């Protein structure tokens, strides 16, 4: 049976491409149909229509309001047809909203797996994403063979919302590393050190990281077409600060990266790849 896929932005398209390469047939819904008309997938008019053709539906959306709209909006997934079917939510949600999604889907007889994605377009295309899932273990085990088609490292944290919280914690590392690497690159250039050579040295020195490996060429070429956008990292760091606030816990190292990415958004660069933060430091 075909797999449903809702949300074909940069990451969604990459995961959908990988699933297709692995032999899966997809039926898709995207809010803006014109953006997916030339991708070769069967397209439906509403989220609800996917349930007529698929037992498993992936969601890959920007934030919790977008997920809520797909679930609860007009002709959404929360209907009689969802009974016995599985929704795998790859979105990075608010840690409180995702609890509601678990409850809402299960209340109407569906199965919900919270499954945020660690990584972006390039690892998605080669099946090298990291996935962290939360929900009922039997649901996770049912769909794990499907997750293995685009995920290399797959973890299970049973308690609902744990996967979402872990994704936000991970993105503190991501945002902090990217800001530091960008500033180091600019500083090296100001010292008349070739940018490419500086990145080579950082890559075997203190900058060694998946972040540098993934963004090195973008920094060299200054090609900031989005794989993971400034808008997305800015949103995630705000959610992380909400989480820390709810725990009455200070979060020292998140404040500066969050403000730097907020500045990029304010400058109208929210749609650019988050490596474009380099532009804030470049002389």
From TrEMBL:
Spans traversing the lipid bilayer: none
Protein known as: NAD(P)-dependent oxidoreductase
InterPro entries in UniProt: 6-PGluconate_DH-like_C_sf, 6PGD_dom2, 6PGDH_NADP-bd, HIBADH-like_NADP-bd, HIBADH-related, HIBADH-related_NP60_sf, NAD(P)-bd_dom_sf
3-hydroxyisobutyrate dehydrogenase-like NAD-binding domain: residues covered: 162-280
Domain of life assignment: Bacteria
Domain 6-phosphogluconate dehydrogenase NADP-binding span(s) in chain numbering: 3-155
Entry keywords, A to Z: NAD, Oxidoreductase
Phylogenetic placement of the source organism: Bacteria, Pseudomonadati, Campylobacterota, Epsilonproteobacteria, Campylobacterales
Organism: Arcobacter roscoffensis
Pfam families named among the record's database cross-references: NAD_binding_11, NAD_binding_2
């Amino acid at each position: 049976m075909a797999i449903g896929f809702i949300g074909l932005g940069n990451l969604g398209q990459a995961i959908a491409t990988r699933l297709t390469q692995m032999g899966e047939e997809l039926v898709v819904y995207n809010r803006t149909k014109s953006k997916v008309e030339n991708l070769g997938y069967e397209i439906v008019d509403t989220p609800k229509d996917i349930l007529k053709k698929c037992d498993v539906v992936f969601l890959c959306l920007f934030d919790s309001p977008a997920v809520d709209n797909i679930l609860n909006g007009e002709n959404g997934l929360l209907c009689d047809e969802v009974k016995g079917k599985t929704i795998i939510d790859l979105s990075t949600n608010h840690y409180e909203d995702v609890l509601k999604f678990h409850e809402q889907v299960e209340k109407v007889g569906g199965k919900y797996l919270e499954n945020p994605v660690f990584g972006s377009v390039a690892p998605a295309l080669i099946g090298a994403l990291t996935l962290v899932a939360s929900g009922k273990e039997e649901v996770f085990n049912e769909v794990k063979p499907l997750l293995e088609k685009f995920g290399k490292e797959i973890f299970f944290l049973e308690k609902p919302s744990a996967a979402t919280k872990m994704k936000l914690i991970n993105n503190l590392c991501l945002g902090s590393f990217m800001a530091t690497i960008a500033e180091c690159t600019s500083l090296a250039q100001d010292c008349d050190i070739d940018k490419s050579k500086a990145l080579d040295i950082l890559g075997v020195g203190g900058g060694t990281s998946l972040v540098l490996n993934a963004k090195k060429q973008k920094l060299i070429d200054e090609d900031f077409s989005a794989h993971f956008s400034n808008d997305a990292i800015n949103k995630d760091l705000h959610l992380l600060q909400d989480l820390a606030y709810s725990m009455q816990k200070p979060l020292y190292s998140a404040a500066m990266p969050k403000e730097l990415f907020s500045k990029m958004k304010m400058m109208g660069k929210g749609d650019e790849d988050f490596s474009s933060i380099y532009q804030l430091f470049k002389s």
